[in-house]
Amino acid sequence: MIQNHIEKKRAELLTTAKTFGFGAKETIDCSVELDKLIWAYQENRLRE
Q1: Domain extent listing, the chain
Q2: What pTM does this model have?
């Protein structure tokens, strides 16, 4: 389920931010990926 992917990506984001810092490219890239997952989840909810 997409919710599981969101939770895993959120955990990855926190780890990446702690490792590289909040402004690092790795953290921002991970944040963008999380945003895409959340948008996909919201779009699916609207279709139901």
Answers
A1: 2-47
A2: 0.90
At position 33, the amino acid (one-letter code) is E
Q: What is the largest CA-CA distance in the chain?
A: 39
Q: Is the dihedral of CA 26, 20, 15, 7 positive or negative?
A: negative
Nearest to 31 by CA among 46, 47, 11: 11
Separation between Cα atoms, residue 48 and residue 44, nearest integer Å: 7
> pLDDT tens digit string along 1-33?
899 999 999 999 999 999 999 999 999 999 999
Range list of H helices, the chain: 2-20, 25-47
Contact between 48 and 10 under an 8 Å Cβ cutoff? The reply is no
CA 3, distance to chain mean position in Å, is 11
